[in-house]
Design brief:
alpha+beta; globular; two-stranded antiparallel ribbon; five-stranded antiparallel beta sheet; Beta-lactamase; 12 helices
Length: about 325
């Protein structure tokens, strides 16, 4: 409770002193730095960026530093698939066959439920499961629909985003993280983990070599740029924008992260990411008066518990929620 009160006071004090969003580039004490000092007690190194939609001011800390995206990169994959839908190359009601040999390890909405051949999903449902359940089978199907990692990165460059790189499938990322011999299919991983049970313990441990790999990384400011591009209709059509944000509003992972300390009933549309010492959450939060802000929170190199990492993200989200809300009231 002391930590919650401390960081809330920092946000309220900053809002009272500086009015609306105190920018990363301004001189003097920054609300971003104040939040960072508290949040890093819980989660190693942290970076975040946030912006009220419709405003030009950004609050960020370590905003230009690269972080492992983990499953937050699924937002970029979804947007790239929807771009192909917008161009008439795919349709959301198009059916995709999901065969047993396509099943991936990870959060297992599909491989933990459908063990027999004969599964088909619409592209809309593939995206739904990828985002709301962070399902890796659905993600690698979506990656293929987008044209592969290089095509997703090319799409991001086309819409003006330079500091997000999508380089591997989830099977490749997980396989390399665990040291598996090739992409991590469910069958392969089951056999390897039976033979080498010690591998299972590293899921929650930081892996500095993995974090140092520049592939599949983003800066908080670049992820914020993507979120704003989606919301503005720059990244996709307005129809695809509405579809994706609606899907993100049903995310069931990471209840203790962006959502963890917000007032009950606060609308949140988000996507989480977790691997090793990395815990992330990105998305949109609605303020009591209906204004919204986009937010990206990344962590890395953490040796704390996953609950502490979740709490760090929740502290950032709540502090910025208070900051934007109090800042608006200070102007009135």
């Amino acid at each position: 409770m002391k930590l919650r009160n401390t960081i809330m006071t920092l946000a309220v004090s900053a809002a009272a002193a500086f009015g609306p969003a105190y920018a990363q580039t301004a001189e003097g004490p920054s609300v971003g730095a104040a939040i960072e000092r508290v949040a890093t007690q819980l989660a190693g190194r942290i970076g975040f960026a946030a912006q009220e939609i419709g405003s030009d001011d950004v609050i960020a800390f370590n905003g230009d530093e690269a972080f492992v995206m983990a499953s937050t990169y699924k937002v970029a994959i979804a947007a790239a698939v929807l771009d192909r839908v917008d161009r008439g190359e795919l349709s959301l009601d198009q059916m995709v066959e999901v065969t047993p040999d396509m099943m991936m390890i990870g959060d297992a909405a599909l491989n933990g439920t459908f063990v027999h051949p004969g599964l088909q999903l619409s592209i809309a449902n593939v995206i739904e499961v990828m985002i709301t359940e962070s399902d890796n089978t659905a993600t690698d199907i979506s990656m293929g629909l987008a044209g592969g990692p290089a095509a997703v990165t090319q799409y991001l460059r086309r819409i003006g985003i330079s500091d997000i790189s999508v380089d591997r499938t989830t099977g490749e990322i997980i396989g390399e993280f665990y040291g598996l011999p090739g992409p991590a299919t469910h069958k392969l991983a089951t056999e390897v983990f039976k033979a080498r049970p010690e591998l299972l313990k590293i899921q929650a441990d930081r892996n500095l070599d993995f974090e140092a790999d520049p592939r599949d990384q983003a800066t908080p400011l670049a992820m914020l740029q993507l979120l704003l591009a989606i919301d503005s209709g720059t990244a996709t059509s307005a129809e695809s924008r509405d579809f994706l944000i609606d899907v993100m509003s049903r995310t069931r992972t990471g209840a203790g992260r962006l959502k963890g300390l917000l007032p009950r009933g606060t609308p949140v549309a988000n996507k989480t990411g977790t691997i090793g010492g990395v815990a992330n959450d990105v998305g949109y939060i609605t303020l009591p008066d209906g204004r919204r802000f986009a937010i990206a929170v990344f962590t890395k190199s953490s040796e704390t518990s996953e609950a502490d990492r979740d709490r760090a993200i929740a502290e950032v989200a709540r502090s910025l929620f208070d900051y934007f809300h109090v800042g608006q009231m200070a102007k009135q």
